[in-house]
Amino acid sequence: MVYVGADTLQTNHTETISEAIxxxxxxxxxxxxxxxxxxxxxxxxxxxxxxxxxTDSIWKAVDTSRMFPNRxxxxxxxxxxxxxxxxxxxxxxxxxxxxxxxxxxxxxxxxQRDTSSVQDCLDKTTELxxxxxxxxxxxxxxxxxxxxxxxxxxxxxNKNIKDYNQAVxxxxxxxxxxxxxRHKKLSTTRQLYKRDGIHLDDTTGxxxxxxxxxxxxxxxxxxxxYSGSGTYTPPDTSARERQGPRQRQxxxxxxxxxxxxxxxxxxxxxxxxxxxxxxxxxxxxxxLHASQIPQQKIMDIAYKLSEMLMNI
Length: 312
Prior knowledge:
Residues 1-49, 70-89, 219-291 are annotated as: Disordered. By secondary structure, this protein is an alpha/beta fold.
């Protein structure tokens, strides 16, 4: 299971900022973008779609054709988990690559006073995921985190939402066919919502929602390219660790200077008289470890000390 959380929008993905308001009915289906004027003709629900979205009203302002311009998409409104399951049971498409699920918010709200609210929703979610795998056997299931509701983050409903999200996250970690999308910024910043505290702002809030989902999917796709098996395989460093540290002569890089600059610090000609070297030779620098007193002066001091000792 791979999951990625995103705190802020990455500026190099500008397509996530320009999400258009979606005014289409509950079911939206599109073909990949083209230059033809009739490229978005409505088609039956059972037609092949590369990306399918089952979501409540949180995704109302998301235009999936702009979110995935190079893929055919389908967006279906499902107010509850059961509603999404029933719609999914009527479809079978082995060519669907991604199924994005953003539901359970209304379920948790409607049952917030029940002590079994979280567990009941988890059971329904398990059934929904199972149905998605049956209807779309080759698809990756993308689970979008349920967002908090209202302005009181400590309400019983928001505590249930937090517990539900944590449980879904833990269950998804062991499933290689699912991705969990975290919405960290949307979970903490209420200014990204409309006045009701439930629905996202049509521009910034919606753009963050889209960016989180696309970033998670893109990250998973990038990781799958490392091994071709759909999972990331870290490089094997065991052999290098067994060999121990490399010898100095094996290091490929231990001086950033170019060869012409390096040559300026080396003797470029033969030595001249005693102690004389070509200009620029580093060896002409004073040797701090050698004695700085002339040899003759040392001998004179030694004789004087010898005479003093003899006169004692």
